[in-house]
Amino acid sequence: MKVKAYIASAFSKDNTGGNQAGIIFLQQPLSVTQKIAIAKELGFSESAFISGSDQADFKFEYYTPTSEVDLCGHATIASFTLMRELGKVVPNQYTIETKAGIIPIEVQPKRIFMNQQPSEFFEKIEKPELSEAIDISAVNDNFDIQVVSKGGKEILVPVNINELNALNPNWQAIATLSEQYGVIGMHVFGLSETDIVCRNFAPLYGINEESATGTSSGALACYLFTKNIRRQKEYIFQQGANLGSPSEIVVKLSVNQQDEIIGVNVGGAGYVDDVKFLEVI
């Protein structure tokens, strides 16, 4: 059986870079094993499988080369970028059914945004627990290392921005730590006066590092706002330059009169890269 797989990038910067995802419109049912095999052959951190839904406009399933995940921001943005190019959607509001719930999507002429609920905050982690995963001398002691969830739990790790690119992660140690805390991976970030730069590690799911992560960016925006580290209604996160794929993730927060976050919109630009035909057994 041949399966048509599109490739599109999300969170691109000036129509280059970003994070690639595989996108498959399901014409017939595929098993979990087949979906993982397709994701593995495509070789991207995540691929999206799109079908009809009786609960929303579309149903989205997300697979890494090793397993299924509940939600993936960049694969969602890439998919709607492709669907806009194919004429399957137009600038408007849509909804998608995912394992993380029903997610509202806004299609704009140049950007796609996905709406999410505010992040949940979980345990704080002491710096020595990261000693085998990264060089903890780079950690910024002014801020908390904490597990935060935005569709999937991540460990947010503040580091000194000048040492961010020099980090040499221990993938096995990060995978072990991720399993211990029940998280997808580790989202490491550094702050300058003007920029917020990130790196994301998820070796437990077969993704050592990826160039743009939407759900993690949403979690980080909530973290920065809630902890009064950098209070903004709109954040722009830079990621992926160290991988040769510069990315720009935009996060817009909605807050009430008490300055409590009531909505999170994560989005960015994208472009269509390629199409492949895969033989699936």
Task: Give the topology, please.
Elements: E1 2-12, E2 19-25, H1 32-42, E3 47-51, E4 58-63, E5 68-69, H2 73-86, E6 92-98, E7 101-107, E8 112-116, E9 120-124, E10 146-149, E11 153-158, H3 171-181, E12 185-191, E13 196-202, E14 207-210, H4 214-226, E15 234-239, E16 247-255, E17 261-279
Parallel strand pairs: 2-3, 4-6, 11-12, 13-15
Antiparallel strand pairs: 1-2, 1-17, 3-4, 4-5, 6-7, 7-8, 8-17, 9-10, 10-11, 12-13, 13-14, 15-16, 16-17
Task: Describe the model.
With 281 residues, the protein is α+β, with helices and mostly antiparallel strands. It is globular, with a radius of gyration of 18 Å. The protein has 2 domains: 2-117 and 269-279, Diaminopimelate Epimerase, Chain A, domain 1, CATH 3.10.310; 120-268, Diaminopimelate Epimerase, Chain A, domain 1, CATH 3.10.310.10. The N and C termini lie close together (7 Å). The protein has 4 helices and 17 strands. Strands 1-2-3-4-6-7-8-17 form an 8-stranded mixed β-barrel.
Full CATH superfamily name of the largest domain: Diaminopimelate Epimerase, Chain A, domain 1
| Total domain modules | 2
| Shape by Cα distribution | globular
* Helix-and-strand structural type: alpha+beta
Strand order of the largest sheet: 1-2-3-4-6-7-8-17
Oligomeric status of the shown chains? single chain
Give me the CATH fold name of the largest domain.
Answer: Diaminopimelate Epimerase, Chain A, domain 1
**Biggest pleated-sheet summary:** 8 strands, mixed, barrel
InterPro entries: Phenazine_PhzF-like
GO molecular function: isomerase activity
Family: Belongs to the PhzF family.
Protein name: Phenazine biosynthesis protein PhzF
